[in-house]
Amino acid sequence: MRLQLSRSSISLFVWRTAMQCVAVFLTWFLLVRDQIFQWRLVASGDPTDTSSPAMVPEAQDGEESSIEENENDEDESFEVWFQRICEAVKGNDPDIDELQLDCKDESVTLDESKMKVLADAMEHNQYVTSLIFQNMTIEGGAAAQLKRLLQTNRSVTTLTLDEVGGEGCMAASIGLALHPSSSVRILHLRDNVIDESTAQACGLMLKSNRQLVKLGFSHNTIDAEGISHLSLGLLANRGLKILDLSGNRLNDTSISKICNALVHNDSLEHLSLDFNNFGVVGSQAISSMLRRNRGIREIHLFGNSINGEGGQALAESLRHNCSLKTMILSLNNIGDEGAKAFGEALKVNTTLTKLWFPSNVIGHQGLHAFGDCLPLMKGLEELHVGDFFDLAAVEGLLKGLKRNTRIVTLRMQSPISEIGGLSSVEEEMDFYLRLNKSGRSILQSSPKMSLSLWALALEKANQNKHHAGNPDALYHILRSKPDVMEFSIRR
Ligand SMILES: *[C@@H]1O[C@H](CO)[C@@H](O)[C@H](O)[C@H]1NC(C)=O
Ligand SMILES: *[C@@H]1O[C@H](CO)[C@@H](O)[C@H](O)[C@H]1NC(C)=O
Ligand SMILES: *[C@@H]1O[C@H](CO)[C@@H](O)[C@H](O)[C@H]1NC(C)=O
Ligand SMILES: *[C@@H]1O[C@H](CO)[C@@H](O)[C@H](O)[C@H]1NC(C)=O
Ligand SMILES: *[C@@H]1O[C@H](CO)[C@@H](O)[C@H](O)[C@H]1NC(C)=O
Ligand SMILES: *[C@@H]1O[C@H](CO)[C@@H](O)[C@H](O)[C@H]1NC(C)=O
Ligand SMILES: CC(=O)N[C@H]1CO[C@H](CO)[C@@H](O)[C@@H]1O
What is the pTM of this model? Predict the structure, then answer.
């Protein structure tokens, strides 16, 4: 008879090990969740879920209603539909607070005459707070009308220009630059080609407009000159709290320019640099900016090329005075070195409460090093480590968690499907937890403890048996303080 180890049995073994470590963790979690530690496991079954968390929830004031009735009216041309929309706007209907002009499937050009009709209609409206132009071309002439629209006092607080080309963006920027007391607080410019003159207009707007609270500037094409104009604007800006620069292919040079501009500005609170293209130099620039900046509370660096050295630089910024509370580092490459550096930095820094580093090529060494620092971390409340299938890594983290008193949320991505048997790690933890529940601390107290307290402790130790019925906690307490028995008997 031949004994053959096939590929499938090997992978089955790996799978089982993975399942067991997940099961250990889960069982342990169920055991302790309501007891000594206050932490919560958020295990997601979908390891491909690598999305960046929303930076800040969009301000929602109650119900929304919008005009989006073009979709099914096959017969109606854009012209007719647009006319109808403008009539409704002119009618000042209080139920319409959002106007969305999304030309999904046709390449529509909004020319001067159309934009004029809309701008005139808006003169009579006081209820539309959000104006959205998507996927169309805004011509030069129309841009002038858009500028006019923005320069009149009105209720529009959110302006969105996605995929509209440069002219529209320039018009919006100039409009907001020339009318600094405009009602617009949130500006989204996404998926546009920002040439030098448009970037210059954006910079001018950032410089002179103090009402703008959020600038969403993602997925644009912008060159080095444009970055310089934007940076100059940011340098002089006052008031912007949220800046989203994700997906702009910003490299080390561009990131450094932007960070230099942000060093002294204390109003900015949220910065997103997700999905750009910077590495060590960019990370160092961010680190040096964070060290000196006093306002930024949340930074997103999802999906860049931050390696161990970059991770160390970022961790180093936490050792200094820094206002940062949240750092999202998912989908980079900080590795074991980076994880260790963050662990060490968080032993001294207490301001950072949320750290995410899933998908960063961190092995069990890195997680162990991080785990070793956990008992001394006094600030971190939420940790996202991502996938792991390595029992040694789990043990490292668990060991640290055993003496950490702060973490309330631990996020992992693991395929969870069954609960396996207990491991020795889990058995050991279970034992210490039952001992603690039985008042293990009195073992260290003076021998002159009141008899009623001992009686209570012994009773609890007897109740907190091993699940197999073995009174191991009671046994441990009696063995540690044999004189308790004598003392009780003598009385
Ligand atoms: C914009 O319109 C073009 C066609 O004009 C289309 O291919 C593209 O998918 C649209 N984009 C969005 C986001 O709807
Ligand atoms: C229009 O804006 C000016 C400042 O630009 C302001 O003084 C005035 O009160 C505003 N009027 C209305 C009706 O909002
Ligand atoms: C960085 O990006 C800018 C703007 O796209 C570009 O001009 C510059 O050549 C890039 N630098 C490097 C080193 O790739
Ligand atoms: C931003 O930086 C400029 C130049 O250093 C400075 O004058 C301005 O006061 C800063 N703004 C804020 C809000 O700190
Ligand atoms: C840290 O902040 C405090 C108070 O804001 C300040 O006095 C101190 O100089 C800062 N230290 C450093 C190294 O920046
Ligand atoms: C158990 O209690 C002791 C003190 O009695 C404490 O030092 C230890 O951290 C506790 N263990 C756990 C897992 O909470
Ligand atoms: C807020 C906070 O805890 N900041 C600390 C970060 O780390 C440095 C270096 O040890 C401390 O000096 C700060 O107090």
Answer: 0.74
